[in-house]
Amino acid sequence: MDGSIRKIGIVGAGQMGSGIAHVCALSGYDVTLYDVSDERTAAGLDRLTSTLDRQLSSQKITPAERDAALARVATSSQPQALGQADLVIEAATEDEIVKRKIYREICPHLKPSAILASNTSSISITRLAASTDRAERFMGIHFMNPVPVMKLVELVRGIATEDATFAAARAFVETLDKTITTSEDFPAFIVNRILLPMINEAIYTLYEGVGSVESIDTAMRLGANHPMGPLQLADFIGLDTCLSIMQVLHDGLADSKYRPCPLLVKYVEAGWLGRKVGRGFYDYRGETPVPTR
Ligand code: NAD
Fold first, then answer.
1. Greatest extent of the chain over all pairs of C-alpha atoms, in Å
2. Among 47, 152, 261, 268, which is least packed, fewest CB within 10 Å?
3. Which of 124, 157, 183 is the last residue in one of the domains?
4. Please, what sign has the CA dihedral across residues 268, 274, 278, 281?
């Protein structure tokens, strides 16, 4: 644990929020997991518990470490619960309007000294910071999915981020045993600036009938040695998140090469958002995933 940061607040108990809570609690931090309702926080806690249990059965952690980590996690649907946090990491839906609304709701309850970070995949840190009461203590801490497995964390400073904020965030992330890269504050930073256009292109390849879901994913797994096919990866990220990132790239860089594929838009409109809802480019509701096209 780092000296100045001991208590962590996490906003959003979805895929990423529960994963961030998991690694923080295992590293000894007290964590408050906050979301809009008790149902959402309970679902996040369930996800966190089952990941800990999987790590326990593969002997990556001991029963005592599992129990201690779980005991460090509290949940709440009240913003006041974030009042003791030294660092609050916002990992809510990838939508700038949602994130701004959250900052308006939570900032009055935070300690004046608290650092506020966003796990956004693509949205301008400078713009998000400007909508808070603490632009100098705001920055991007971008974890990868699944958080307990993926080694990388991208750190992004906004134009107003103070050196002390960046140093504290860096020291905190180092205690989580992650590797840090830093990125300038440009749309989608480094990882998603490169990854999402590839995924979007895979969806165009499907849309234009060049290949089926299965042939596209097999081609990229065996032909480019990717551990997961791009459509499988899109489902894993969440198709709503993929679409938001492409929209941020398209709007922010004003280049038509980033236009989101209409088929991606259609899947999101259908509510087929990928693994988290049981259906996307694959249907996950049976024993094995079945391509939906
Ligand atoms: P998700 O849909 O699984 O979870 C989002 C959570 O935010 C939900 O539980 C929702 O209830 C909550 N939320 C929405 N409005 C809220 C509010 N007003 N107050 C509190 N909570 C609210 O999404 P996710 O995949 O966990 O993504 C979360 C963030 O992490 C996004 O910014 C996304 O870009 C980023 N991210 C995602 C991935 C990925 O692969 N999915 C990877 C890195 C970063």
1. 55
2. 152
3. 183
4. positive
- Span from the CA of 209 to the centroid of ligand 1 (angstroms): 32
Ligand 1 proximity of 121 Cβ (cutoff 6 Å): yes
Whether 2 is covered by a domain: the verdict is no
Range of the domain at 204: 191-285
Mutational pocket test of ligand 1: of 35, 99, 245, the residue with most ligand atoms within 8 Å of the beta carbon: 35
Do 128 and 196 share a structural domain? no
Q: Of 196, 270, 242, which Cα lies nearest the Cα of 292?
A: 270
Dihedrals phi, psi of 277, to nearest 5 degrees: -115, 5
Number of domains composing the chain: 2
